Amino acid sequence: MTDMKAMKARKIAVVVGGPSTEAEVSRRTGKAVTDALQKKGYQAEIVELVPAELAATLQDKRFDIVFNALHGQYGEDGVLQGMCEMMNIPYTGPGVMASAVGMNKIISKSAFRGAGISTAPFAYYFIEQGLDEIAADMSREFPLPVVIKSAAQGSSIGTVIVRDEKDIKPALKEAFTYGKSVVAEMFLSGREFTVAVMDDLAFPVIEIISKTGKYDYRSKYTPGLTEHICPAAISAALTREMQDLSVAVFRLLHCRGIARVDLMTNGEGRPFVLEINTMPGMTETSLVPDASRAMGMPFEDLCERILAEASTGKF
């Protein structure tokens, strides 16, 4: 068991920012985490990610632990994790494999399907196929509306719900600005939920209700635009089913620390896994802190628990 008294004598780098499209969200997460750890008496310091300089910064400033508060590129895709493994610096969250698989929607959804985990029907495409061929195939395979997503973005960046066939190609162009692959996913007309998982413990289910009618980047990070109902007003059976699905995803990817699994129901109320967030947001509008408080765990205690599992040698 980690000696948290001894941990307070160690320097903790809360790594944030970088070149990711989610850098600003990361900085907000990092500030919240740093404030929480400092209140607990830890020597936590924010470190802005400069990719070519991070290894030297960690060594020169003699940091002992990395608290990963990055979202997206470098922090959520296995790159930071691999660097910490090579430098033998304990870090929070999942390892290289779990991060890389969780970040890529094509690979993660294929893993869900292969493991028999209920996920929304999908197909994936690469930019080399050409927009005309992709749009034609998508029209054959999916009824409208259809959801088009960049394969390796979070916070709903690069995600478009297409309701008219003429909008498929513009949506593909937008999604491809964020990478060379996209996912087309069957539109689910039910309700939106999320479940945080830590150490195989499922937190209370949260229902997400957007006041704008869509849960996009603006709705996620603008206070007051989204309502989080926790615990969700659903049956005990559906609650257990969603929690079991989320734990199954967490285990499948060999996650560590805390992750968040996003789900939606179809018109008949059946739940489907959309994706896993291996580095969920911890801002004032984020979902995980809401779930933590609902189960009686203050935000400061949550951050301390995440810190306690910092280590190397992860999958």
UniProtKB/TrEMBL annotation:
Top-level taxon of origin: Bacteria
Family as reported in the entry's similarity comment: Belongs to the D-alanine--D-alanine ligase family.
GO cellular component terms, A-Z: cytoplasm
InterPro entries in alphabetical order: ATP-grasp, ATP_grasp_subdomain_1, D-Ala_lig_Van_CS, D_ala_D_ala, Dala_Dala_lig_C, Dala_Dala_lig_N, PreATP-grasp_dom_sf
SUPFAM superfamilies: Glutathione synthetase ATP-binding domain-like, PreATP-grasp domain
Enzyme class label: ligase
This protein's UniProt keywords: ATP-binding, Cell shape, Cell wall biogenesis/degradation, Cytoplasm, Ligase, Magnesium, Manganese, Metal-binding, Nucleotide-binding, Peptidoglycan synthesis
Cofactor(s) the protein requires to work: Mg(2+); Mn(2+)
Purpose of the protein: Cell wall formation.
Subcellular location(s) of the protein: Cytoplasm
All copies of domain ATP-grasp, residue ranges: 109-308
UniProt-listed Enzyme Commission number(s): 6.3.2.4
Protein name: D-alanine--D-alanine ligase
Amino acids binding Mg(2+) 1: 262, 275
UniProt organism field: Anaeroglobus geminatus F0357
Record-listed Mg(2+) 2 binding positions: 275, 277
GO MF annotation terms: ATP binding; D-alanine-D-alanine ligase activity; metal ion binding
